[in-house]
Amino acid sequence: MYTGLLGVLPGQTPLISFNEALQYFQTADLSEYMKKIQPTVRRSGLSAVSHLLFGPPRLHRDLHAERDLVLTIAQCPLDNSQQVHVRVLQTIYKKLTGARFDCPLYGSHWEQLGFQGLDPGTDLRAAGVLGLMHLLHMVMDPKILPLAHDIFRLSQHHRQNFPFCLMSLNVTRICIQVLREERVSRECNRRQQVFAVLNDLYVAIYYHLYHVWKTQNKTISDSGFILKEVEALAKKKPKDLFRQLDAHLRERPLPKDLPLEIWTHHPAEQRIETHEGSHAQARAICFTGVCEQQVQEDRLI
Questions:
Q1: How far is CA 101 from the centre of its chain?
Q2: What's the pTM value of the predicted model, to 2 decimals?
Q3: What pLDDT is recorded for position 52?
Q4: Is 299 strand, coil or helix?
Q5: How many CB atoms lie within 10 A of CB 54?
Q6: 298 pairs with which residues across the strands?
Q7: pLDDT tens, position by position, 90-106
Q8: How far apart are CA 291 and CA 166, in angstroms?
Q9: Which of 74, 90, 141, 188 has the fewest CB atoms within 10 Å of its CB?
Q10: What angle do CA 79, 85, 87 make, to 5 degrees?
Q11: Which of 223, 230, 213 is nearest to 154 (CA)?
Q12: Which one, of 9, 10, 26, 8, lies nearest residue 18 by Cα?
């Protein structure tokens, strides 16, 4: 009898692709969460006039439904009674750690991946299940998975460590805000897609953050400042982020055999110790505060 979904015994839940998970959300009843979305930032007075005259182009009307679905998923909490939700979570865990069996739905192993506590769902306030969908996209795309491993390895560094999943949720939060401010509408209109563009933006932002963090020897104490810089760049020059990511993926050849185990240089004892240190530091500087979703109106004062 399979009991993995209940978190009682380990099982072998099949991996789930991004498209399969997306198909579930496209057909699920999300009306409860759709009522909560704010498709665009509210503007009034001179701010509204300025945005209309000089701001980015508006999203094509035929893409509004896809945009609204993105924002609705961002309102959905993790539901451990939903098999698709659980498969998404288990897939992320397995692809990052190389594990072959399911892990319990609650436990300290989620802290080692960079969540704040024993239950991943408690960290999804600002990003909802969209935060997990972005992670799923990154770990299930064979061209991007090596980058995910690189970022994850750096998050375990003895000095430059940071909470990997929580940082990822902050990147998703930035993507949500960029979408609501219509900063990627031009690219969405050009490609006639919203999800795909936002997935690429998520990876591009996380790559840029990783590159800055690694090359400039940043630590967890720099996280708030870096996230603000990255958000400003994503809003002003998203094309630059896309180009940087494309250049990185072209320069790095895809390995023939993707590793099943990424802990080669991180013994278990060191892994737990360093990440617990990251987790403690994150709590000390209120890292979660950076991930609060912005819902205030945008006014020109």
A1: 23
A2: 0.80
A3: 53
A4: strand
A5: 7
A6: 43
A7: 999 999 999 989 999 99
A8: 8
A9: 141
A10: 140
A11: 213
A12: 26
Q: H helices within the chain, ranges in order?
A: 18-27, 31-34, 45-54, 64-73, 83-97, 109-113, 128-140, 145-155, 164-180, 185-191, 195-215, 223-236, 238-251, 268-284
Of the candidates 234, 249, 164, the residue with the CA atom closest to the CA atom of residue 202: 234
List of the chain residues with pLDDT < 50: 1-9, 44, 48-49, 51, 53-54, 256-280, 282-301
Closest by alpha carbon to 209, among 238, 228, 230? 230
**Token couple for 33:** 């969460």
CA distance 223 to 216: 12
Enter the tokens of residue 67: 């945009």
At residue 40, the pLDDT reads 81
Report how far apart, in Å, the C-alpha atoms of 64 and of each of 49, 67, 179, 181, 183 are.
22, 5, 11, 14, 15
The backbone region for 258, taken as left when phi is positive above 0, alpha when psi lies in -120 to 50, beta otherwise, is: beta
Q: How many CB atoms lie within 10 A of CB 112?
A: 24
Look-up of token digits 């994503």: 234
CA distance 194 to 1: 40
Residue 150 near residue 210, CB atoms below 8 Å: yes
Report yes or no: 137 and 130 within 8 Å, Cβ to Cβ. no
* Phi and psi based region of residue 33 (left: phi greater than 0; alpha: psi -120 to 50; beta: remaining): alpha
**pLDDT at residue 55 in the model:** 57
Amino acid identity, residue 45? G
The strand pairing partners of 192, in sequence order, are none
For residues 183 and 238, the answer to whether their CB atoms sit within 8 Å is yes
pLDDT number for residue 142 = 94
Cα–chain-centroid distance for residue 46?
A: 33
State the helix-helix crossing angle for 164-180 and 64-73, rounded to 10 degrees.
150
Q: Token pair 């009843």 is at which residue? A: 29
